[in-house]
Amino acid sequence: MKELKVSAINKGTVIDHIPAGRGLKVLEILNLPKDSTILVAVNVRSGKLGRKDIIKVEGKILNEEEVNKIALIAPSATVNIIENWEVVEKRKVEIPNEITGIIKCANPNCITHYEEVTPKFKVVSREPLKLKCHYCERTMEEDTVLKHLL
Ligand code: CTP
Ligand code: ZN
Q1: How far is CA 1 from the centre of its chain?
Q2: Ligand 1: centre distance to CA 142 (Å)
């Protein structure tokens, strides 16, 4: 079968298996330097039925902390480190213990909506996802979290 292929890269980081439609959000969260060379593919055929998004960052090896920021919106993502055209490392993203920025608190009365403070959450549970606001202690579950992405 003929297939549209996204170019391989020589060196860098490939974030693969991002749920289809979330690639651009992931890119935003990664907050990469403006001069980065990036390839983004959306709605790429994956396996028999599914679709996925892929992000390739050329020339830059992203560290775990940078990549784990995307875990909330792309828990299925695989991170591939590429050197000399070869995958030299493959990792899964992991939800960190604490989330800073990225999402806003669901409590409209929370101080984070009135003061210049960066929202901060403690991860109380990963499966199912449960976050607790550091400031007002409001607990948010997965569906609420996804509706409150900054
Ligand atoms: N890739 C790339 N440049 C390379 C090598 C690999 O952009 N020089 C990309 C591939 O296109 C793929 C990802 O890195 O999106 C992982 O590559 P590989 O492990 O070879 O693919 P799969 O075996 O399909 O990965 P998985 O098992 O994670 O689905
Ligand atoms: Zn709050």
Answers
A1: 31
A2: 29
